[in-house]
Amino acid sequence: MARVVARLQRGWIGVFVTTGVFSRAAQLELAQDRYLVVLINGE
Fold first, then answer.
1. pTM higher than 0.90, yes or no?
2. Among candidates 34, 12, 39, 14, which has minimal Cα distance to 24?
3. What's the confidence (pLDDT) of residue 4?
4. Measured CA angle at 4 (ends 41, 17), to 5 deg
5. Domain residues of the chain, as ranges?
6. Residue 9 has what pLDDT?
């Protein structure tokens, strides 16, 4: 996820897709830092 966030340019929205699940810590970090990344998990 760090690479997705690092490559975002102003006005872009990132999308991260996995067949697994995202940890609660990862979700909280994205929310707290207000990164424009959509998380799509396999559930």
1. no
2. 39
3. 80
4. 15
5. 2-40
6. 86
**Among 30, 13, 33, 34, residue whose Cα is nearest residue 22:** 30
| pLDDT, tens digit only, all 43 positions of the chain | 788 888 888 888 889 899 999 999 989 988 898 888 999 998 7
3-state secondary structure of 14: strand
Task: State how far the Cα of 32 lies from the Cα of 25, in Å rounded to an integer.
Answer: 10
| Residue whose token pair is 């998380």 | 39
CB atoms within 10 A of CB 4: 13
Reading the block at residue 4, the tokens are 């997705």
